[in-house]
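Please, structure for the following, as tokens.
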Amino acid sequence: MTESTLMSDRTTRILRIGGWATAGLLLTVPAIAMQFPDSGVHWTVSDFVFAAVIFGLIGGLFELAARASRNIAYRAAVVVAVACGFLQLWITVAVGIIGSEDDPANWTYIAMVIAALSAAIVAGSARNLAWAMRFMAVLQLAFLALHLIEGHFTAVIDLFFTALWVLSSRLFARAAAQANAA
């Protein structure tokens, strides 16, 4: 593997510090917004705890990825996959993608996150992660079909998530090819 495909230790350190700082700053946004009564932001302690746990899990996944590989494509694939899972979870829990957050059809998006985490745990290598992300794209499309059959028009957001899974798959495949070329 050439040096151009690897992330330097210095860059890794900077990104790690920046990532954790960003997570902390994101938690302050609703706290600041709550100081303005007309903002419409009314978080409870449990909302802040939930957000902190989610941001901590995301940060932990990025830490694991940083330790798993210095390959830039691999790390980018992790960022895309984690972002896709995070968006599905956060939107579903906050407001619901289908109807309100209480609509049972939203569980398909929670299932996507659980499936992605399970696939990532068993996959191991970049090559297997590429296949796992392809599986996630197919599963997302299967849920899109289910949503359409049930009368929920979620094509735009489901295709967006599918595109993210495909992008992650392509990046993992590139990382695997670069590792094999080394």
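The chain has six helices and no strands. The CA atoms of residues 103 and 122 lie 31 Å apart.
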